[in-house]
Amino acid sequence: xxxxxxxxxxxxxxxxxxxxxxxxxxxxxxxxxxxxxxxxxxxxxxxxxxxxxxxxxxxxxxxxxxxxxxxxxxxxxxxxxxxxxxxxxxxxxxxxxxxxxxxxxxxxxxxxxxxxxxxxxxxxxxxxxxxxxxxxxxxxxxxxxxxxxxxxxxxxxxxxxxxxxxxxxxxxxxxxxxxxxxxxxxxxxxxxxxxxxxxxxxxxxxxxxxxxxxxxxxxxxxxxxxxxxxxxxxxxxxxxxxxxxxxxxxxxxxxxxxxxxxxxxxxxxxxxxxxxxxxxxxxxxxxxxxxxxxxxxxxxxxxxxxxxxxxxxxxxxxxxxxxxxxxxxxxxxxxxxxxxxxxxxxxxxxxxxxxxxxxxxxxxxxxxxxxxxxxxxxxxxxxxxxxxxxxxxxxxxxxxxxxxxxxxxxxxxxxxxxxxxxxxxxxxxxxxxxxxxxx
Length: 439
What we know:
The chain is mainly α.
């Protein structure tokens, strides 16, 4: 993977130049047949778990909306279809395992979650770095990617098979990925997914590392209820987007809360969660309903910087998941999408009282991380003690910004848009939060 001595240059977004490995992967993928039907997805999940109780059946309608979008899209590649099937099957498998825990865990409904820290903001606005800093303080419990992608074991399959351990070890060694020699099969499967990302999309992996120990979003949990804008990040699904936006998301935040209760009981330490979700800005009332005692941390950044980063990252990923890459369409979609999200954010910000929330400017956070953390701890009513300071500093020292390279963005060249032309759409957001132009 690139390191911080190398710039990340995207000079082939619209006309990808494929490596030999990418060509091989695309060729192998072209030989696959993928049945993206509800019966195939749910049947695979049942076969993998030995379970058949998915809980309330309303999720099937949401799943079918997703599948209809996938199946009506002529530009999804064979690899893209295989990826969609794998992701949906994992979601359905997790839904079965979660429902099994609901059915067999006594009195989980009565569990009270201690007040969490909940980071929310635009993607690429410092949310990931902030939650990783907070998660370094071991007085909190967090949600590493390997655990949030598979919250619970299939009963009787708590130990990894020899073949899985060998494949994970081999790729981990070849890529020098730094993943630990873990014995949990969930961790090893996540490690394999990370290795695949490093091999087929190294620049994407450098922009947004998805290694197993990476602290991830509770957003993932809502994908197991098949209602989350997470699905928009992996494919072009306008039908599902409109369905999601037209429906109250409160029930799905209740599902999130209930799964957090199960995880809290299983972990058993009584530590509060530190959470992060880039969907939350457009769902502040639902978030407040599900996590009424949280301290909400809202990050703010120039939307132009966010959009150019998001569009570059996703357009690069499309070279594998889609048969053609259209950068201008990617940027147009996400400019529209973030405008909707930020309008909801401005409209509903009042739902979170100042005593329970904090606004954090990205520029201020990057300029003085320690001052930002001091503010957060004071607001949350916690002491930033010496041990926490040492743990946080260790994370900062071992994860410098730009560790895997710094992206050289070319908004006009790649996407045909001038920064000021894009920025004027977001005047309402700049005015509401005093955000400073960055690009």
